[in-house]
């Protein structure tokens, strides 16, 4: 038969090769078909290989082995996949049919092929890999004779690896399609942790990266039982060790860590390992960590405050060993000083932690800066210490400096540096709290030290301490002729200090010896500025006058006055060509300085006649010598000063000779040099009317009228004292003086500022005409309030002098109005000039008070000026002061937050208001006004409220303790939210003229009556959150009637929902990972403060209802159950509470079970309905169709139901072992449906024949693969090998047979041999017989293995024959195959009955067993029925399964041994 079958195969091959002949047939008839297949594959004759391999005879099938399979798979490695692809649908199914053990070879080859595919076709990978795995798995899934289950169990490890491979491919495909991330398969196969680590480092925009972590990576880790917190922490640690900027990635990963402990640990590591100063990202993460209540938070806070210290320690240039820092502190400081970086001082002080370290650091730094001559920095270093450290540092530094200066071996430059530092140090010590006696001793030591150093350095003179007792000897030995004044003054000051003399006296002695005019002027300026004594001022003036003319005008004696006998005085006309060099300027400067010096001397000592004589001489040139300086204009704006014109030398000499002619007999004149004298008198009647008059007229035209008038007056007054003087001369002078007076007055009034005293005196000089000129000037200058006031004041004084009252009242009112307009400069832009002067005093004062333009003193003065009731206006001022007060503040940025820094407080306002109140007589009315204006005060100006409350409490019997406490609380509180709508309404109602809220509303909560009412939450609603709720606890003691801790906490939790932080609720969505661990931790902390457990339970339950479905909702339910338990404990006998508790309990368990079901992809509606019935749910889970699929073959979309059952059992506290044991016994007790399933084959492991259809047995096998496997395996073995009754009577053999099948499915070959002490084949035969006995038992034939072996098989067949049932027919077939009975009559009956009962599956088994009877008609009939039935079923096959069905049918026809012509 085999030869005929091979010949048929050859004939088919001949059709493809016409050259075949007899020799070819002979060769083919005797060849090894397996080798022929390999040859065809090697020659790429794929069609021939398919035909030969699908038509192997029985002998070839028996010779099929794993070596052949390996050889074929090796051939597949070389050619492209497309060449051998068509051979796989034939090769895999046939090989699995006849050599099931080849599964392990196929799985290994498939894994290798996928890895090579990634390299060959990376563009289409992993899509092509996924397709290949799915195709191959489908091909090797041959369900014949029950061998598939057994091979799956034997190759469980390989299938798990393949399952992992396919999951990896699909994961890579998802990454590629959704996130454009390409990862090599080898990285995935290294394990989930390595794969996660790789994915965490992908380059991606932050907003996409965060979604990638949440929507993919965390789910992946959850599916692989990886703690995402641990992985994230490890990855952050790894990233910190890497080069490059990973902080943006770290921050996103950090935010996705849900464990508070791990998050705080990471924060510490970030602070320790990140470069200092820390960047904004690190600070943001640290700042977020500070929001929690945890012991580690304090440590993190300290680390943040020590940022500077860490920065220093990490500086590699400093070579700091942190562990030895304290013991090597001075060495470290010296090293930092040596490196000398710009931030050196800050770095060193960051390292200091104790007083001795501050002391040592300061001494080292100060010495360093002294040697660098940076004394400002040295003092800055000293200033950084507290007083006690400063005292110790100063003492050490002074002793050290003294040793340096007095030592001979130190360089002069070093001594000088320390010498320059000592004065600064002594001043610092004095301010730093040195005791008076110690300070005196230090100063004396330093004075002597300074003197010795000074004279040695500057004059090369060595003086001992004893020589300082003879100061004149020192002065006489000094030569300062070549020094400038600054040096001379310094020397004078130092010499005076060293000799304990007055500096000014030493300076005068030095100037007299030097005899330089420049030095004299500078000395005079110095003495004037330093407020020297009258004696010294007079001495320097005398020295100045003594040398003034000699040094400045020697050339004039031979030019201007060579023809002095002509009695012709020089005029400005003939002075134009004269020298006007700096010598004249110096002359004027000398006159100016002399005038100032003598005036100051007179102020100090007016009894000295010598001073008066010098003063008169200097007064002649007052208007020439007075400087036009900004300072003088500022200090003396009303003193008249004409436009400055530099006078020529002739002018100066004219004035001098006029004065000399009058004062030639004076003792004072002897100070002038002899060459300045004149031989003839200058002033005669003729010279006055001609030359002097012409000169005076020119003076006036050139703007020097005051000088001319003063000159004439001085000369005339002086001549009066001379009896021999000609009267005509005096008359001519008086006429010339009157003419000059009018010009002088006009010049004074036209000046920017009127010299009132001068104008008054000038008007007095014209008693007949003063009114005429005064009226003219008032009318001319009415728009200039300053001149109007001055002229009015002068007019009042003149009227009083002349005892005239006409127009006096008008002038007084004008003076007052001008005075206040001038004082109130701030209102000039707010009020018209004319309106101010036209308005009455009452309206005027109220207006300026409201404009905040006056103070307390001004109001009192104004009322006094205009005779108003000051009490009324002080009350108005009090109100204005309170309402116009504005806090001074600035906004600083601290990390990502704005911080309000108020720079003033209520103290100054309180003092101001208290002062006003003390001056008010009707205090009761004032306090009533204060109470009323509380409604008008800006809500956010706490300082005003505090001031009013304090004022009222201090001055009345009223107390405002609650209001004040609330104000103190609000001042310390910084706002978190934005103003509420109710707050805005209150603001615009109170201040309707405003357009926006006050800027302080961003930082302050409004202080309004609503805070003390039941509407308080209309203000606080935006403020209370999980971040700020604790801050409001202090306010509950103040607002106890309307604000409770419970309410605060309840609202803080409710605010979580209203804030939108929980996201959008999606009904069918379920998040497997937790996002709000930190949030729920805060909620727990907050709710813990709620005393009313009913409220606590309710608010957490409400929060739970609003959290999106998933892990967070489960944790929220657990939290709500926690408080429900506490609430129940307080109300043990309350039925409503008990009902609520059950509701919370069911909710928690329901959500927890739902989470388990979603996690394991078991979220079917049928299971979700059973979440509160765990035992029923577990049983239903084990009936899931995926259990059958997983038991038969690898299911790549499989979720581990065993793990889900474990989780559910743990949740409810169930004994999962007992539950599984009970289910196992039940499912092993159920009989197989033998009419539709099991048949036996002695060739193909009969015990597993069609076991795939026995769902209960598959469930039992699946249960036994749980974590209770060892226990259940022991139990099954005991059932199989024990002869005692094990179950319900009459079903013990069914139970035993099912137990045997289950045991074989979960136990590998080695283990079976070990525990049964039988060979693997012997044990399988034993199991086959148990199965047969169970089937016979179902038919009422009670046997055991021993009786079955010895009884007559024909007798048994005869009994079964008479039964005629389908099951009896199956048993007949099983007996014949088990005991190898091939008698024609039995098989013909079995085949015919199977055809009759349409037992197609059994027929397929029988024709395979009866291959050697393929010539029998019943065999042919069997194949005919099988083929007909198979193709009839195609019409019921879906399009998706059609191809698979046709391939299987084709393969079935190929193995049919019946000749095609027999049909």
UniProtKB/TrEMBL annotation:
Domain KNTC1 first ARM-repeats: 4-129
Gene Ontology terms: cellular component: cytoplasm; kinetochore microtubule; RZZ complex
GO BP, sorted A to Z: mitotic sister chromatid segregation; mitotic spindle assembly checkpoint signaling; protein localization to kinetochore involved in kinetochore assembly
One matching Pfam family: Rod_C
Domain KNTC1 third ARM-repeats, first and last residues per copy: 739-949
Annotated GO MF terms: small GTPase binding
Protein name, per record: RZZ complex subunit KNTC1/ROD C-terminal domain-containing protein
Organism: Psylliodes chrysocephalus
């Amino acid at each position: 038969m085999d030869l005929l079958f091979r010949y048929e195969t050859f004939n088919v091959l001949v059709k493809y090769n016409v050259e075949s002949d007899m020799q070819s047939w002979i060769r083919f008839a005797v060849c090894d078909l397996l080798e022929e297949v390999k040859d065809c594959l090697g020659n790429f004759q794929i069609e021939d290989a398919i035909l030969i391999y699908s038509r192997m005879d029985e002998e070839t099938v028996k010779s099929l082995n794993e070596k052949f399979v390996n050889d074929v798979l090796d051939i597949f490695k070389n050619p492209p996949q497309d060449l051998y692809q068509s051979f796989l649908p034939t090769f895999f199914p046939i090989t699995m049919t006849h050599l099931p053990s080849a599964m392990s070879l196929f799985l290994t080859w498939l894994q290798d092929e996928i890895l090579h595919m990634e390299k060959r076709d990376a563009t289409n990978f992993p899509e092509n890999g996924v397709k290949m795995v799915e195709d191959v798995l489908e091909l090797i899934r041959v369900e014949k004779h029950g061998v598939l289950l057994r091979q799956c169990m034997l190759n469980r490890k390989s299938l798990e690896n393949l399952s992992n491979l396919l999951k990896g491919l699909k994961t890579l495909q998802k990454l590629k399609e959704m996130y454009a991330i390409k990862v090599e398969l080898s990285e995935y196969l290294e394990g989930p942790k390595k794969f996660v680590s790789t994915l965490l480092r992908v380059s991606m925009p932050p907003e996409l990266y965060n979604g990638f972590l949440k929507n993919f990576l965390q789910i992946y880790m959850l599916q692989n039982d990886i703690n995402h917190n641990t992985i994230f922490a490890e990855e952050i640690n790894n990233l910190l060790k890497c080069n490059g900027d990973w902080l943006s990635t770290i921050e996103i990963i950090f935010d996705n860590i849900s464990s508070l402990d791990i998050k705080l640990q990471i924060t510490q590591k970030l602070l320790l390992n990140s470069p200092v100063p820390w960047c904004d990202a690190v600070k943001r993460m640290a700042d977020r960590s500070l929001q929690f209540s945890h012991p580690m938070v304090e440590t993190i806070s300290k680390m943040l405050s020590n940022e500077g210290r860490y920065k220093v320690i990490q500086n590699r240039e400093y070579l700091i060993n942190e562990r030895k820092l304290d013991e090597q502190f001075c060495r470290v400081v010296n090293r930092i000083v040596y490196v000398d970086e710009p931030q050196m001082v800050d770095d060193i002080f960051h390292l200091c932690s104790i007083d001795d370290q501050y002391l040592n650091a300061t001494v080292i730094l100060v010495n360093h800066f002294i040697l660098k001559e940076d004394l400002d920095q040295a003092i800055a270093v000293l200033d950084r210490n507290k007083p006690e450290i400063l005292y110790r540092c100063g003492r050490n530094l002074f002793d050290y400096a003294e040793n340096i200066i007095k030592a001979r071996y130190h360089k002069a430059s070093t001594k000088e540096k320390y010498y320059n530092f000592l004065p600064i140090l002594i001043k610092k010590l004095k301010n730093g709290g040195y005791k008076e006696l110690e300070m005196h001793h230090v100063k004396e030591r330093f004075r002597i030290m300074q003197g010795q150093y000074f004279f040695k350095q500057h004059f090369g003179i060595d003086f001992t301490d004893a020589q300082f007792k003879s100061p004149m000897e020192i002065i006489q030995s000094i030569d300062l002729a070549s020094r400038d004044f600054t040096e001379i003054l310094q020397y004078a000051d130092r010499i005076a200090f060293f000799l304990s003399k007055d500096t000014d006296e030493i300076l005068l002695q030095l100037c007299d010896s030097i005899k330089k005019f420049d030095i004299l002027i500078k000395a005079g300026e110095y003495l004037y500025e330093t407020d020297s004594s009258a004696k010294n001022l007079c001495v320097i003036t005398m020295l100045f006058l003594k040398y003034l003319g000699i040094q400045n005008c020697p050339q004039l004696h031979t030019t201007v006055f060579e023809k002095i006998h002509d009695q012709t005085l020089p005029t400005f006309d003939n002075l134009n060509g004269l020298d006007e060099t700096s010598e004249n300027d110096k002359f004027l400067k000398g006159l100016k300085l002399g005038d100032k010096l003598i005036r100051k001397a007179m102020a100090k000592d007016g009894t000295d006649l010598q001073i008066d004589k010098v003063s008169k001489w200097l007064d002649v040139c007052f208007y020439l010598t007075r400087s036009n300086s900004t300072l003088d204009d500022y200090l003396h704006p009303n003193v008249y000063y004409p436009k400055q014109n530099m006078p020529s030398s002739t002018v100066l000499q004219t004035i001098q000779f006029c004065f000399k002619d009058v004062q030639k007999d004076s003792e004072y004149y002897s100070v002038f040099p002899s060459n300045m004298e004149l031989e003839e008198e200058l002033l005669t009647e003729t010279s006055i009317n001609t030359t002097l008059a012409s000169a005076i007229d020119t003076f006036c035209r050139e703007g020097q009228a005051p000088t001319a008038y003063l000159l004439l007056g001085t000369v005339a007054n002086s001549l009066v004292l001379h009896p021999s003087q000609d009267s005509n001369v005096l008359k001519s002078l008086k006429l010339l003086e009157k003419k000059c007076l009018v010009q002088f007055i006009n010049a004074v009034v036209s000046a920017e500022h009127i010299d009132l005293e001068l104008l008054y005196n000038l008007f007095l000089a014209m008693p007949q005409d003063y009114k005429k000129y005064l009226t003219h000037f008032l009318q001319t200058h009415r728009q200039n309030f300053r001149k109007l006031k001055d002229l009015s004041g002068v007019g009042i004084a003149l009227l009083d002098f002349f005892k005239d009252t006409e127009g006096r009242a008008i002038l007084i009112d004008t003076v007052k109005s001008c005075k206040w307009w001038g004082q109130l400069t701030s209102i000039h832009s707010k009020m018209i000039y004319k309106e101010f002067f036209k308005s009455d005093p009452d309206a005027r004062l109220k207006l300026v008070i409201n404009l905040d333009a006056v103070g307390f003193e001004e109001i009192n003065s104004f009322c006094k000026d205009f005779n108003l009731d000051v009490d009324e206006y002080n009350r108005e001022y009090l109100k204005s002061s309170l309402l116009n007060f504005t806090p001074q503040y600035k906004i600083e940025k601290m990390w990502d937050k704005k911080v309000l820094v108020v720079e003033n407080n209520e103290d100054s306002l309180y003092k101001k208001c208290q002062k006003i109140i003390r001056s008010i007589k009707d205090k009761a009315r004032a306090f009533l006004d204060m109470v009323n204006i509380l409604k008008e005060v800006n809500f956010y100006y706490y300082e005003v409220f505090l001031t009013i409350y304090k004022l009222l409490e201090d001055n009345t019997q009223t107390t405002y303790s609650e209001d004040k406490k609330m104000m103190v609380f609000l001042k310390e509180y910084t706002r978190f939210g934005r103003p509420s709508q109710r707050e805005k309404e209150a603001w615009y109602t109170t201040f309707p003229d405003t357009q926006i809220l006050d800027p302080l509303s961003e930082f302050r909560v409004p202080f309004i009556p609503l805070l003390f009412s039941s509407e308080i939450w209309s203000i606080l609603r935006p403020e209370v959150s999980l971040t700020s709720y604790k801050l409001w606890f202090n306010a509950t003691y103040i607002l106890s009637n309307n604000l409770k801790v419970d309410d605060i906490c309840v609202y803080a939790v409710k605010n979580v929902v209203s804030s939108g932080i929980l996201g959008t609720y999606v009904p069918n969505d379920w998040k497997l990972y937790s996002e709000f661990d930190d949030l729920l931790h805060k909620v727990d902390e907050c709710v813990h403060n709620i005393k009313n457990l009913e409220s606590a339970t309710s608010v957490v339950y409400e929060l739970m209802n609003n959290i999106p479905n998933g892990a967070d909702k489960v944790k929220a339910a657990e939290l709500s159950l926690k408080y429900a338990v506490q609430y129940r404990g307080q109300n043990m006998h309350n039925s409503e509470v008990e009902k609520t508790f059950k509701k919370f309990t069911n909710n928690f368990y329901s959500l927890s079970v739902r989470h388990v079901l979603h996690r394991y992809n078991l979220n079917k509606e049928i299971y979700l309905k059973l979440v509160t019935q765990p035992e029923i749910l577990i049983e239903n889970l084990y009936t899931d169709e995926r259990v059958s699929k997983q038991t038969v073959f690898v299911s790549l979309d499989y979720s581990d139901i065993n793990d889900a059952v474990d989780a559910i059992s743990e949740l409810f506290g169930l004994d999962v072992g007992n539950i599984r044991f009970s289910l196992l016994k039940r499912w092993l007790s159920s009989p197989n449906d033998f009419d539709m399933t099991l048949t036996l084959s002695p060739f193909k492991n009969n015990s597993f024949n069609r076991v795939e259809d026995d769902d209960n047995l598959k469930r039992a096998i699946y249960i036994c693969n749980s974590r209770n496997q060892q226990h259940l395996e022991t139990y099954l073995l005991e059932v199989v090998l024990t002869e005692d009754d094990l179950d319900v009577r009459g079903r013990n053999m069914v139970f035993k047979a099912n137990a045997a099948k289950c045991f074989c499915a979960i136990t590998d070959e080695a283990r079976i041999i070990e525990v049964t002490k039988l060979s693997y084949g012997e044990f399988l035969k034993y199991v086959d017989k148990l199965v047969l006995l169970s089937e016979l038992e179902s038919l009422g034939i009670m046997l055991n293995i021993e009786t079955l072996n010895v009884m007559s098989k024909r007798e048994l067949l005869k009994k079964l024959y008479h039964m005629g049932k389908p099951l009896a027919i199956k048993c007949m077939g099983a007996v014949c195959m088990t005991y190898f009975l091939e008698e024609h009559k039995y098989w013909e009956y079995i085949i015919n009955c199977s055809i009759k009962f349409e037992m197609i599956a059994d027929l397929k088994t029988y024709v395979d067993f009866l291959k050697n009877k393929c010539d029998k008609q019943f065999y042919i009939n069997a194949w005919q029925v099988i083929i007909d039935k198979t193709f009839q079923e195609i019409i019921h096959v879906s399009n998706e399964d059609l191809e698979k069905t046709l391939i299987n049918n084709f393969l079935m026809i190929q193995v049919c041994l019946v000749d095609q012509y027999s049909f």
